[in-house]
């Protein structure tokens, strides 16, 4: 939620280009801080207010029933993201130097396929965007009617997500090509990822566009805001669904309690090293937690429960069928591949991490194990 708060902050500032000429320094001093641990006691009040506002939005929509809450919000937010990004991408393609970025996009360095870090990043991206391994698909699928084809819906979600990401990539690389052409800086030197790309590189680019930048920049952050809120719904709903299935607590009360707890935890990331903490948590989740979790889920689902038993259910009302290849991937290919990547990723994570980062990662492991034990206890008590 803190990233949504950063986005809200920049959305307000985008109307006046309030970040100035040195966007990197502005982000460090006013929004995300740095990795200097001596600044840990400093807090960015505007970012904290944004966190509270973000959680209030999430609570306000989530505490209502699915159709009038998340369902209605999704029907508004998701099409809005498509429309806004379409406007930005179409204009970006007309910018001077856009072809520089496009050529970089469509002419990849195939040798990088042998770099294990590329696979880790790729898995992290697709895991996050599709919510794989995090009960998102399971939770949302539980709300489908019985006459819906499960594999058809999965195919539509994957196809639309991938198409949208490829489409927006042309816009992103066109804008970076424009900056390379106008600044004289090689495109490779502009490479930045995650928060650096959104909150440091892009503000500098849009500042160079003059009047057009004043129009496109608010639209861009509005699209990021909508995408962030819709993603927050997706991550929040499985927690609500799993706990509500084990307790007699009403949805409104449960959402209120979880929102308060979540808001208090998110405020930790508004300190003077917030961007550093976000990077540590992101590395832990992507290189340790989620890859191992998905591999374990594949083993449990494929071998303990038996993936072949589910195939008739998946195919029953679906036009797109699954069979031997799907079962082979679930039982053999995916878990083996993920475990190999996980082992390499976890070794690199601890080799490259300092004592503070390792301490945070170990703390996260303890929190995950404790929460898992609590949820399991809730289930056994209910029975």
Number of helices: 15
Q: Which residues sit in consecutive blocks of at least 5 with pLDDT less than 50?
A: none
Gyration radius (Cα, Å) is 22 Å
Summarize the main sheet. none
How many domain regions?
A: 1
Secondary-structure element series: HHHHHHHHHHHHHHH
Which structural class fits the helix and strand makeup? mainly alpha
Q: Give the strand content.
A: under 5%
Q: How many individual β-strands? A: 0
What's the average pLDDT? 80
Residue share in helix:
over 70%
* First-last Cα distance: 34 Å
The coarse overall form would be globular
How would you sum up this structure in a few lines?
It is built from 15 helices and no strands.
Topology diagram in text:
Elements: H1 2-13, H2 23-32, H3 45-62, H4 67-92, H5 98-106, H6 116-130, H7 136-141, H8 150-183, H9 195-207, H10 211-244, H11 251-266, H12 274-306, H13 311-315, H14 324-352, H15 355-382
Helix pairs in contact: 1-3, 1-10, 2-9, 3-10, 3-11, 4-8, 4-10, 5-8, 6-12, 6-14, 9-10, 12-14, 12-15
Describe this structure in words.
This protein is an all-alpha fold. It has one domain. 75% of the residues lie in helices and 0% in strands. Helix 3 packs antiparallel against helix 11. The two termini are 34 Å apart. The mean pLDDT is 80.
Keywords:
mainly alpha
């Amino acid at each position: 939620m803190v990233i949504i708060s950063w986005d809200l902050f920049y959305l307000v500032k985008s109307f006046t280009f309030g970040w100035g000429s040195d966007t990197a320094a502005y982000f460090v001093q006013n929004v995300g801080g740095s990795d200097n641990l001596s600044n840990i006691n400093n807090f960015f009040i505007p970012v904290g207010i944004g966190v509270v506002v973000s959680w209030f939005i999430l609570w306000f929509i989530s505490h209502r029933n699915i159709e009038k809450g998340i369902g209605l919000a999704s029907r508004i937010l998701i099409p809005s993201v498509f429309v806004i990004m379409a406007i930005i991408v179409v204009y970006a393609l007309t910018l001077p130097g856009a072809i520089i970025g496009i050529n970089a996009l469509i002419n990849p360095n195939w040798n990088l396929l042998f770099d294990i870090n590329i696979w880790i990043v790729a898995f992290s991206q697709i895991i996050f965007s599709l919510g794989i391994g995090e009960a998102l698909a399971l939770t949302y699928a539980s709300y489908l009617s019985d006459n819906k084809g499960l594999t058809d819906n999965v195919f539509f979600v994957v196809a639309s997500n991938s198409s949208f990401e490829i489409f927006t990539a042309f816009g992103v690389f066109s804008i970076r090509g424009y900056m390379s052409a106008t600044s004289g800086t090689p495109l490779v030197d502009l490479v930045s990822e995650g928060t650096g790309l959104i909150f440091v590189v892009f503000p500098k680019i849009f500042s160079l566009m003059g009047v057009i930048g004043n129009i496109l920049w608010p639209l861009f952050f509005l699209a990021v805001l909508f995408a962030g809120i819709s993603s927050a719904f997706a991550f929040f709903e499985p927690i609500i669904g799993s706990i509500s299935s084990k307790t007699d607590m009403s949805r409104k009360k449960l959402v209120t309690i979880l929102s308060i707890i979540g808001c208090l935890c998110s405020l930790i990331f508004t300190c003077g090293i917030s961007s550093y903490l976000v990077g540590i948590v992101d590395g832990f989740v992507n290189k340790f937690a989620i890859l191992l979790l998905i591999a374990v889920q594949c083993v449990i689902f494929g071998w303990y429960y038996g993936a072949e038993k589910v195939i008739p259910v998946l195919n029953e009302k679906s036009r797109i069928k699954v069979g031997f290849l799907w079962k082979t991937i679930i039982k053999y290919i995916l878990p083996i591949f993920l475990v190999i990547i996980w082992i390499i990723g976890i070794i690199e994570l601890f080799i490259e991490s300092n004592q503070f980062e390792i301490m945070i990662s170990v703390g996260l492991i303890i929190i995950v194990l404790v929460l898992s034990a609590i949820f399991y206890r809730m289930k056994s008590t209910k029975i």
